[in-house]
Amino acid sequence: MEYYKIIFSALYEAHRLIKEAKGKPLNRGAFGHITYDVDKLAEEGIIKELKKNFKNISIVSEELGYIEDGELLALIDPIDGTTNFLRGIPFYSSTLLLSKGKFYKDIVACGIFDHKEENFYFAQRGLGAFKNGEKIKVKGFVPLSEAYLCFELKTTNELWVSRKGFYELINKTKYPRFLGSSALETVYVADGKVDAFIEPRAHLRSFDCLAALTIVKEAGGFVKVFNLDLENYPLTGKEKLAYLACSSEELGEIILSYLEKR
User: Fold this and answer.
1) Are the C-beta atoms of residues 141 and 241 closer than 8 Å to each other?
2) Which of 10, 41, 135, 146 is the one with CA 20 to 30 A from 49?
């Protein structure tokens, strides 16, 4: 089955519809956040394209919630970085992941569309990672003194890493950044634009980050989930993730040496 074409067509339809959005609030989504017209338009576009290709498909989406209707499961984040979109900041994405079962180990393919750059990132389990059809690999080792690291900095909840070590790492990093779309910041590790992304608290849901983590892994990157067993993680579960995605195991171990400090 042509997973590349199916995922691309669904995410490109979201890209087309997002251009029509006005940033108008509508209601609250399935997980309690405010849904805007941009979220709804993107979601409807993705689902419409999926249903063209699959008679029956189960769906987990940030806006719609969970609908069980088939053996194949789709995880959808219609737009990651909604606040950036609403503020006119050109850094937001849409993600789609397909699985033949209900656990991470059952994932078959996934994609992320970078709306500003119009780049399509894709991975199929065991076949590698791609950007606009061209195979990509992580950059490899970069010393911390030269690293471009992205962080989720909203740390009001209990961290899964050392608070002292986390802030020490930020101060040791030459280029610390927080850009507002965890999916893009993570997938940029696969593309060599970012050297590592760290989410230190269990904050991200399955549809927020699993596609990006899969693309990083398929691009040869280093991934460490702090709070759960990734391979056996239930895609429809409510447990959120804390993780590190990195361009190399060597840099990952250096970062972990800070994060584990007590």
Assistant:
1) no
2) 135
Residue 260 in tokens: 């584990």
> Within the chain, how many helices (H) and strands (E) appear?
7, 15
Query: Which of 99, 118, 136 marks a domain boundary?
Result: 136
Strand-pair partners of 76 = 61, 96
Domain span including residue 179: 144-259
Final residue of a structural domain among 88, 120, 136 = 136
Query: What contacts 2, CB < 8 A, 6 or more positions away?
Result: none
CATH number for the domain spanning 158: value is 3.40.190.80
Q: Are strands 148-151 and 196-204 parallel, antiparallel or unpaired?
A: parallel
63 vs 35: CA distance, rounded Å:
7
Mean pLDDT of 136-165: 89
Crossing angle for the helix pair 182-191 and 206-218, nearest 10 degrees? 0
pLDDT at residue number 25: 63
Under 8 Å between Cβ of 104 and 210: yes
Q: What is the pLDDT of residue 26?
A: 56
Exposure string of 42-63, with b = 16+ CB inside 10 Å and e = fewer, is: bbbbbbebbeebbeebbbbbbb
pLDDT higher than 80, residue 17: yes
Asked whether the predicted pLDDT for residue 109 surpasses 60, the reply is yes
Claim to verify: residue 98 and residue 172 sit in the same structural domain: no
Beta strands in the chain (DSSP E): 25-28, 34-36, 57-61, 65-67, 72-80, 93-99, 107-114, 119-124, 128-131, 134-136, 148-151, 175-177, 196-204, 222-225, 241-246
- The count of residues in the chain is 262
CB atoms within 10 A of CB 203: 17
Statement to judge: residues 76 and 198 lie in one domain: no
Number of domains in the chain: 2
